[in-house]
């Protein structure tokens, strides 16, 4: 399924959390939620894992304006309070795949537009507080050299 929707699985090195930024961001949200709910005496955090993950996955993200569930599955989650399920059926699996692909393309396109718009808003806000550097000719400046260097350089 991951190849059909164009998803590439990547690995990160151990003990290098910077390379796994999205997971670290999720953990920054997830751990305090579990800590609020668990009973410290009984250490019952495992009882709250599924509800907290479900709440996170079905919550609308402020940047994309979509839930993680909707971005992954191309539809809203079915909740117990939703009542009767839809009776819509597909004649062939390829019909379902075509509809799913169309839905995912639309959702991802709108989410991408929302992300770009939010990034522009963040940039405007950041630029308000950051003064432009003023350099004159012959000013001394430090230059950072990127790339691999030898041990003795």
From TrEMBL:
GO terms for biological process: DNA integration. Gene3D superfamilies: Ribonuclease H-like superfamily/Ribonuclease H. Residues 1-76 form the Integrase catalytic domain. InterPro entries: Integrase_cat-core, Retrovirus_Pol_polyprotein, RNaseH-like_sf, RNaseH_sf. GO terms for molecular function: nucleic acid binding. It comes from the Eukaryota. Signal peptide: none annotated. This is Integrase catalytic domain-containing protein. The lineage of its organism: Eukaryota, Metazoa, Spiralia, Gnathifera, Rotifera.
